[in-house]
């Protein structure tokens, strides 16, 4: 294990430090201007911390009572609810709402956004883990559910692989149309959230005053923003060049994914400016790390260090290099104060290597934009590399594509560190 992982964390940063450093610079360069919210807007956002997803919660309760309803759920995913002869009222209600696609959904834009994501191939997995997931650990109230299930700590490698697989499913071109793999993946995760929410609500140690309602609307919207807007920021920091149209199309894709996940439409950003404002609001109210944030960050770093096990006598060297490189990527977005608090190693050489990679990638991306047909080739290669990755992780972990493991684990897990 790299020695950096055993270092004592620094003192707790101020709540708004997530919105300083690199992120503040990015906001000045790319944002719409003034991002601060007033008290009324903060209060409105916080009201959503008491709201869940009634449609999914009612259906999840039926699925727990009657396992046979799960087969009807799967049939409705693939063929639509009208293909069912009979079904529980809660299932009809859920799918009739889901299949009433909002007026703003444009599948041509969604497919363009998917192609913009897919063309970067395996590079896209870097900000997904090092910026989106690591950044999410700063939201201590949302972290309590992850700690409560125990799944991300005790089966971290598998859960991270399943998260990546889900991300690939929903970002594959054409997959979000009714009956597609991404459409099904989004709704399965929505039901998984409902099961986890029910499990957390049954616990005697859940502190609603400190942690809000489990898997609430604010937390789901925040997770969505990490996968969309923060992902785009991370990719741009790594030298990937997106046009304005590509960025807006990517955000449109995630707006629809959020709607499928049951996020209230009032919390779904319509464009890049909306995303910046919501991110800033969340940074000021939600991204407040604590000891559980450190705990999960350490687990994620340990997964990076574990890669050294495949290199025999070089295991410590490779493991330390992996931790330093991933930590350097995280620092690019989170800033030094949050990175230090989470226990990320301050490796200057690795940071220089990441910046060099970003510069080289930026030059390659500039050439791609100038060469006819280069983007099409990149999309083809990117899609192939992601398919290869899915095969490898499925072979290693036999992925649970129903995404039901967190709910099963939550039902039997002991309380997390803060709840104990």
Looking at this protein, list some descriptive labels.
420 residues; mainly alpha; 66% helix; oxidoreductase
Which outline best applies?
globular
User: Number of domains in the coordinates?
Assistant: 1
Q: Please give the radius of gyration in angstroms.
A: 21 Å
Query: What percentage of the residues does DSSP assign to strands (E)?
Result: under 5%
Major sheet size, sense and barrel closure:
none
- Helix residue percentage: 55-70%
Q: How is this structure best summarized?
A:
The protein is an all-alpha fold and 420 residues long. It is built from 20 helices and no strands.
Write the layout of secondary structure elements.
Blueprint (H helix, E strand, L loop, with lengths): L21 H9 L8 H9 L6 H12 L3 H11 L9 H10 L8 H12 L6 H12 L3 H10 L1 H4 L1 H15 L10 H21 L6 H4 L5 H21 L6 H17 L11 H14 L5 H15 L9 H28 L5 H23 L3 H24 L7 H6 L10
Helix pairs in contact: 3-5, 3-11, 6-14, 7-13, 7-17, 8-16, 10-11, 10-19, 13-14, 13-15, 16-17, 17-18
């Amino acid at each position: 294990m790299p020695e950096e992982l055993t270092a004592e964390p620094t003192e707790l940063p101020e709540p708004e430090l997530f919105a300083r450093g690199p992120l503040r610079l990015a906001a000045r360069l790319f944002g719409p201007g003034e991002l601060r919210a007033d008290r009324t807007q903060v209060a409105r956002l916080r009201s959503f911390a008491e709201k869940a997803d009634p449609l999914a919660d009612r259906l999840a309760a039926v699925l727990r009572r009657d396992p046979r309803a799960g087969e009807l759920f799967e049939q409705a995913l693939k063929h639509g609810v009208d293909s069912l002869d009979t079904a529980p009222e809660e299932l009809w209600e859920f799918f009739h709402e889901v299949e009433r696609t909002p007026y703003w959904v444009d599948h041509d834009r969604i497919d363009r956004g998917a192609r913009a994501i897919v063309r970067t191939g395996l590079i896209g997995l870097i900000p997904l883990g090092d910026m989106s997931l690591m950044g999410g650990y700063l939201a201590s109230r949302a972290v309590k559910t992850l700690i409560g299930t125990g799944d991300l700590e005790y089966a971290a490698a598998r859960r991270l692989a399943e998260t990546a697989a889900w991300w690939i499913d929903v970002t594959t071109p054409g997959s979000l149309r009714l009956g597609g793999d991404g459409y099904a993946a989004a709704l399965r995760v929505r039901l998984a959230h409902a099961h986890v929410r029910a499990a957390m609500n049954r616990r005697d140690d859940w502190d609603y005053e400190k942690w809000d309602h489990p898997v609430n609307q604010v937390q789901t919207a925040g997770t969505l923003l990490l996968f969309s807007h923060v992902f785009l920021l991370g990719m741009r920091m790594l030298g990937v060049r997106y046009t304005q149209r590509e960025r807006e199309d990517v955000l449109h894709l995630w707006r629809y994914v959020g709607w499928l996940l049951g996020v209230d439409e009032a919390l779904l950003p319509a464009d890049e400016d909306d995303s910046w404002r919501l991110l800033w609001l969340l940074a000021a109210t939600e991204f407040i790390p604590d000891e559980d944030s450190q705990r999960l960050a350490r687990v994620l770093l340990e997964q990076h260090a574990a890669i050294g096990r495949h290199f025999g006598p070089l295991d410590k060297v490779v493991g330390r290099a992996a931790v330093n490189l991933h930590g350097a990527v995280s620092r690019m977005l989170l800033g030094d104060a949050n990175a230090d608090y989470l226990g990320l190693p301050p490796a200057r050489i690795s940071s220089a290597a990441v910046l060099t990679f970003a510069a080289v990638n930026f030059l390659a991306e500039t050439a791609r934009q100038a060469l006819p047909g280069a983007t099409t080739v990149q999309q083809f290669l990117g899609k192939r590399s992601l398919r290869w990755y899915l095969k490898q992780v499925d072979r290693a972990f036999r992925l649970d594509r129903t995404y039901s493991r967190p709910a099963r684990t939550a039902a039997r897990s002991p309380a997390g560190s803060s709840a104990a």
